[in-house]
Design brief:
The complex is a heterodimer. By secondary structure, chain A is mainly α. Chain A has five helices and two strands. Chain A has one domain. A two-stranded antiparallel sheet of chain A has the order 1-2. In chain A, helix 2 crosses helix 3 and helix 2 runs parallel beside helix 5. Chain A starts with a helix and ends with a helix. The relative contact order of chain A is 0.17. By secondary structure, chain B is an all-alpha fold. Chain B has one domain. In chain B, helix 3 packs antiparallel against helix 11, helix 14 packs antiparallel against helix 19 and helix 19 packs across helix 20. The longest helix of chain B is centred in the first third of the chain and has 32 residues. The C terminus of chain B is likely disordered. Classes of the chains: A mainly alpha, B mainly alpha. The interface between A and B is medium-sized, with 18 and 18 residues.
Chain lengths: 136, 509
């Protein structure tokens, strides 16, 4: 069953959704958003692709082993938690780059933590959805 | 930076779990990492314990937020003792599970989940924030759901449904109680709560909250009449998993009870009487349950319920001597209950049975191993001078002299039935002559295992038995430790001062 409109739209939506998910991730510290929602949106982009084409096509598209995103994300979050320890501060203390950077604005260890969450959510959601749709 | 040392036991387990996730399908690597990591964890816990024992309570403010606004981690004698015991038990369990757990189960994240579970336990012991305690409880039960369903057999899922429902209910009650407490005081820091709760006019509502906590933690630690989920679910998973559950999961509920009911809610006469009655009934019902069981692992599960009664009884009397007895019992119980289920695992590997009537002949086949297994069994009963003897004497004496004749009667009854049950188990499984029967094809028997695998089965039991022997024979040190912990639980000013600082003294009305 070929749905031309859906497929064409997905071709545009996939990069847009991924970009949007990064946007949500970056604004998350002070405004609504963050790693969890961003990760879900990114996962939805791939799920949409899997609906429009097939699971096999999406697998080809992702290339890397998405299961590996879970430990990588956890490791990032872990690293952001222990980072203050090396400066003699209690763990999870927020460390910030004091000059605002272009585009992403203020950057701190909480962004690293959120990025970890983002990767974990993408990994977990893709694992769950792909496992279910494989066995269905 | 000495303060960050507090959180290292938690972070290290997280690091182990993450590393194991990278080797998700490589079981051999996982075994090596898990066992060697657990050894390091014991060293870390011992170092932390030593540090706190020498220099007093350590605190750490996560995120550098000042108390009572941030999450405080507190390492006092009680919590570090628990962390040390948890890491010793988990070392034994990781070694034991490396040979007993089936490959198919190891491939689905057994070891990472185990380390997430231990991380949750360590976090629950070390946190000084009531909401954070709830979060660690969630970490613990989510990981335990993995274990209780891993394998997906029908009987397992049946146990899992009961386990899930009751634990979920307990979590909801716990969360509700926290919400009410926060509404009353505007604080979640346990040391801060201790002061604020006394200044509330509506003491009736405080009492209700205390009961909510009692029921919530009561379900988790399986006290009367909320224990029935435990014997129904603990016998279904593998021996190594049941050992973690038996040794540590119910004990974290007890830890939370002891902590909240000494620090936040100081029990009044009504709550004391209530807890004493519950303790007595827990002892009686657990003992009677154990007596009628013929399934080895169900019998052990009822013994867990029974022995919770001793610790709760100590809390109910709420004197320094009674609490010291309860703490000593808790220390003894963690090690010996873990060991008991590991022994159950070996007995199953030797005989291929969980039904006591069908066992037999272990003593004649393996006399040395049987003597080793006798140590945890008779420590549990409390044969002097083994480890169960001392706290029972303490508790019985305290109950008798404080006029709690009901409780002292129940303690005697519980001890007597434990003796009876263990003797029956011993004579059935060890001394009875073995009838010839054909071997079951799907069971990997102990006799057919290579020596290296046998080492990983017997080694953990040896380790825990040695710890048990030390608790029994070096009782003087343990008594000193439990006296100190009990004194700290009775007089919480040291704890509160350590968390909030000396400038923040609390005026009690």
């Amino acid at each position: 069953m070929k749905q031309l409109i859906f497929r064409t739209a997905t071709g545009f939506l996939l990069p847009l959704l991924l970009l949007f998910s990064v946007f949500i991730l970056l604004r998350g510290h002070y405004l609504p958003g963050g790693g969890f929602v961003g990760g879900l949106i990114a996962a939805i982009a791939f799920v949409l692709h899997a609906f429009a084409f097939t699971l096999k096509e999406t697998r080809k598209l992702i290339k890397i082993n998405y299961r590996l995103l879970i430990p990588i994300g956890l490791a990032l979050a872990f690293f952001s938690a222990i980072l203050p320890m090396f400066k003699g501060l209690p763990i999870l203390t927020g460390l910030w780059v004091y000059e605002p950077l272009p585009v992403v604005d203020m950057v701190g260890s909480s962004l690293l933590f959120d990025t970890g969450v983002y990767l974990v959510v993408v990994g977990v959601t893709l694992t769950i959805i792909f496992t279910i749709s494989e066995s269905a | 930076m000495i303060e960050n040392l507090i959180i290292i036991p938690v972070l290290f387990q997280l690091l182990l779990a993450i590393t194991l996730l990278f080797f998700f399908r490589k079981i051999k690597t996982q075994k090596v990492i898990s066992i060697s990591g657990s050894i390091v964890a014991v060293v870390i816990a011992a170092f932390l314990f030593h540090q706190v024992y020498d220099e007093g309570i350590l605190t750490m403010q996560a995120g550098n937020w000042q108390p009572p606004f941030g999450i405080t981690f507190v390492a006092d004698a009680f919590s570090t003792t628990m962390v040390l015991l948890a890491s010793i038990s988990s070392l034994a369990v990781t070694a034991f599970s490396s040979v007993t757990i089936k490959k198919a189960r190891l491939r689905f994240g057994y070891f990472p989940s185990l380390h997430f579970l231990i991380m949750g336990l360590n976090g629950a012991f070390l946190t000084g924030d009531i909401f954070n305690l709830y979060v660690w409880f969630e970490v613990i039960i989510i990981s335990s759901f993995v274990f209780i369903t891993l394998g997906g057999k029908k009987v397992q899922l049946e146990g899992a449904v009961k386990y899930f429902t009751l634990n979920f209910l307990a979590s909801i009650l716990f969360l509700t109680a926290i919400a009410v407490l926060y509404g009353l005081t505007g604080s979640l820091n346990m040391a801060d709560l201790a002061g604020k709760i006394k200044q509330i006019n509506n003491q009736g509502l405080v009492q209700v909250t205390a009961i909510l906590f009692l029921v919530g933690f009561g379900i988790k630690s399986a006290i009367f009449p909320l224990y029935f989920w435990l014997p129904d679910s603990y016998h279904t998973p593998q021996a190594a998993i049941s050992a973690v559950f038996a040794g540590l999961l119910t004990k974290v509920g007890i830890y939370a009870l002891l902590r909240t009911f000494s620090l936040i809610f100081v029990p009044d006469d009504f709550i004391k009487t209530l807890i004493v009655i519950i303790a007595g009934l827990t002892l009686i019902s657990g003992a009677l349950g154990a007596m009628v069981q013929t399934n080895m692992r169900k019998m052990f599960s009822y013994l867990i319920v029974c022995h919770i009664g001793y610790i709760i009884g100590g809390l109910g009397m709420f004197t320094t001597a009674a609490l010291a007895g309860a703490i000593f019992y808790l220390i003894h119980d963690i090690i010996v209950k873990t060991n008991l289920f590991l022994v159950g695992g070996i007995v199953f590997k030797i005989t291929g049975e969980t039904h006591m009537k069908k066992m037999g002949g272990i003593y004649s086949a393996y006399p040395g191993l049987s003597l080793l297994m006798a140590i945890p069994l008779f420590s549990l009963v409390g044969v002097p001078p083994l480890s169960g003897f001392w706290p029972k004497i303490d508790l019985m004496q305290e109950a008798f002299f404080s006029g709690n004749y009901f409780l002292s009667g129940c303690i005697i009854f519980g001890s007597f039935i434990t003796l009876l049950v263990i003797i029956r188990f011993w004579s059935e499984a060890f001394w009875k002559k073995n009838e010839q029967k054909e071997l079951k094809p799907h069971v990997k028997y102990y006799g057919t295992m290579p020596a290296s695998q046998k080492l990983f089965l017997v080694g953990p039991i040896l380790l825990l038995s040695l710890v048990s022997l030390y608790i029994g024979l070096g009782a003087e040190n343990i008594i000193r430790l439990s006296d100190q912990i009990a004194a700290e639980l009775m007089d919480t000013s040291v704890y509160i001062e350590a968390v909030l600082g000396t400038s923040h003294t609390i005026d009690t009305p």
